[in-house]
UniProtKB/TrEMBL annotation:
The chain crosses the membrane at residues 46-66, 94-114, 121-140, 146-168, 180-199, 211-231, 263-286, 306-329, 341-362, 374-396, 464-487. It comes from Nasonia vitripennis. It comes from the Eukaryota. It is found in: Membrane. The lineage of its organism: Eukaryota, Metazoa, Ecdysozoa, Arthropoda, Hexapoda. Belongs to the major facilitator superfamily. Spinster (TC 2.A.1.49) family. SUPFAM superfamilies: MFS general substrate transporter. It is a multi-pass membrane protein. GO terms for cellular component: membrane. This is Major facilitator superfamily (MFS) profile domain-containing protein. Residues 56-488 form the Major facilitator superfamily (MFS) profile domain. GO terms for molecular function: transmembrane transporter activity. Residues 504-515 have a biased composition (Acidic residues). PANTHER family: PROTEIN SPINSTER, SPINSTER.
Length: 525
């Protein structure tokens, strides 16, 4: 019987198939390399940002704005709260400390959840809790219950602060990310300033300090609606290729972060910044009020007026300082890869003497005091968006919420969680050193001389206590200089991890089916 089988192909056509596959593989590899190179070198501008992305960023900025408004409204009405609850300086400082303690304790939990679950839902729930506890707390009639609800506010705010920056980092890359982070952190000094202003002005208009605390919960309701309807939860590492990286265990995340020296040193530096900003933001208006009383020979000075001016200064310093720091970093990092931490370090070195001189002039020249504090805060504001940017580019996408959470934990645990309380305690202790005959239970005669002595004691004790912030600024600068020694290496390590994950995913998707196809073609009968 005639053999009807197709004769075996003894030509070299199968080599051509292999060559074609090789060419295809080479082409795919070339394309992958091109994409990687494009993703690593391309620098899209703001024109590439879509309308929906702009809306999402503006919503996140709005929530961050009212977040910090709420946080510093207390400082704007502090004297009224002191009079109402009959508190001393240490009890006053404890209000902010209780808030920050709960804030930092729950930050790691929300960081863990933010790396693994829907971030929109977590943020919305947190903002709801913060609004509810702030509103309910404003009706409390005792110091203990007011302190309790103030602590609960910190839990809600922790959910937002740990997650929102990571959403921005997943939506943008390179200079666009830096610009968006500058816009986001721009809300911190502006929100803080608005907190002083709205708190004081609302209290004055209603003749009740409690109404100053009820503004942000009302705005928070609109924030929740906008988060749920206008913000999407992007894939982690969406614009960097980080979506190829699988999540690791929480313990592995912590170990990796502890080995990341840039992250650890920048966190230590940011802790110093947090200490200084927390102390100045809380005690600044009260300290200036004491100084103005000495200038006016003991006449009463309205804290609302001082808080208003202090808030305007904080806002303008933020309006200039945050974007200027971001712009400076974007320009200089092209030539010097260590530019980011160096800008932060120099900013603190500039801020320290300005804040010191501002506190010295508080009792003698109001204009000089406000001017020096303005420039001191401007230099301090240079670092906000830069620190956030550094964290995001030295940490891989699947660990960023955890990194944000632990930076918040350490920055607040050793920073602004204790600084208002510590400054208050030091100030109270110094009163008995400055004026030895001022003893507990001693009733002063109502004379102008003794009242003037008391005003001097109040001012000097708080002034000397605030001098501690100058030393902390210098310490923070040293930590930023240490960060500069490792920042380039740690950024390269994070970039390589993302690139390796992309390579692994590409090889699994492209090469294995291609090998099966070739084997089928050359398989002998």
């Amino acid at each position: 019987m005639e053999d009807t089988r197709i004769p075996p192909n003894v030509s070299q056509q199968y080599l051509m198939v292999n060559d074609g596959n090789a060419t295809s593989a080479s082409s795919a590899e070339s394309q992958t390399d091109t994409e990687k190179q494009s993703s690593s070198s391309a620098s899209p501008g703001l024109s590439s940002v879509t309308i929906s992305e702009w809306i999402a960023v503006l919503v996140l900025c709005f929530v961050n704005l009212i977040n910090y408004m709420d946080r510093f409204t207390i400082a704007g009405v502090l004297q009224s709260i002191i009079d109402d609850f009959h508190m001393d300086n240490s009890e006053s400082g404890l209000l902010q400390t209780a808030f920050i303690l709960s804030y930092m304790i729950f930050a790691p939990l929300f960081g863990y959840l933010g790396d693994r679950y829907n971030r929109k839902v977590i943020m919305s729930a947190g903002v709801f809790l913060w609004c509810l506890t702030t509103f309910v707390g404003s009706f409390m009639k005792s110091y203990g219950w007011f302190l309790f609800f103030r602590a609960l506010v910190g839990i809600g705010e922790a959910s937002y602060s740990t997650i929102a920056p990571t959403i921005i980092s997943d939506m943008f890359i390179k200079d666009v990310r830096s610009k968006m982070l500058a816009l986001f952190y721009f809300a911190i000094p502006v929100g803080s300033g608005l907190g002083y202003i709205t708190g004081g002005e609302t209290a004055r208009a209603t003749n009740q300090w409690q109404w100053g605390l009820r503004i942000t919960p009302i705005l928070g309701v609109f924030a929740i609606i906008m988060i749920l309807t206008l913000v999407r939860d992007p894939i982690r590492g969406e614009k960097e290729g980080g979506s190829h990286i699988s999540s690791s265990s929480w313990s592995e995340d912590i170990k990796a972060l502890m080995k990341n020296r840039s992250f650890m040193f920048s966190t230590a530096a940011f802790t110093c910044v947090s200490f200084v900003t927390g102390a100045l933001a809380f005690w600044g208006p009260t300290f200036i009020q004491y100084g103005l009383k000495l200038q006016n020979s003991g006449e009463d000075v309205n804290l609302d007026d001082v808080a208003y001016k202090f808030g305007v200064i904080a806002m303008i310093a933020g309006l200039i300082g945050v974007p200027f720091g971001s712009m400076l970093a974007q320009k200089l990092r092209v030539r010097w890869h260590q530019a980011d931490p160096l800008i932060c370090a120099v900013g603190l070195l500039i801020s320290a003497p300005l804040i010191f001189l501002g506190s010295v002039f508080a009792s003698s020249n109001a204009i000089a005091c406000y001017t020096l504090i303005f420039f001191g805060q401007l230099a301090l504001n240079l670092n906000w968006s830069i620190v956030a940017d550094m964290l995001l580019y030295v940490v891989i996408p699947t660990r960023r919420s955890t990194a944000e959470a632990f930076q918040i934990l350490f920055a607040h645990a050793f920073g602004d969680a204790g600084s208002p309380y510590l400054i208050g305690v030091i100030s109270d202790a110094l009163k008995f050193v400055i004026l030895p005959n001022l003893t507990i239970g001693w009733v002063e005669p109502k004379t102008a001389a003794l009242q003037m002595d008391k005003d001097i004691v109040n001012f000097r004790s708080l002034q000397y206590a605030l001098f501690l912030t100058i030393f902390i600024e210098i310490l923070g600068s040293a930590f930023f200089f240490l960060t500069a020694m490792y920042i380039e290496k740690d950024k390269a390590l994070a970039d390589n991890t993302i690139a390796d994950a992309m390579d692994s995913d590409t090889s699994e998707f492209d090469e294995e089916p291609e090998a099966e196809s070739v084997n089928a073609l050359i398989k002998p009968d």
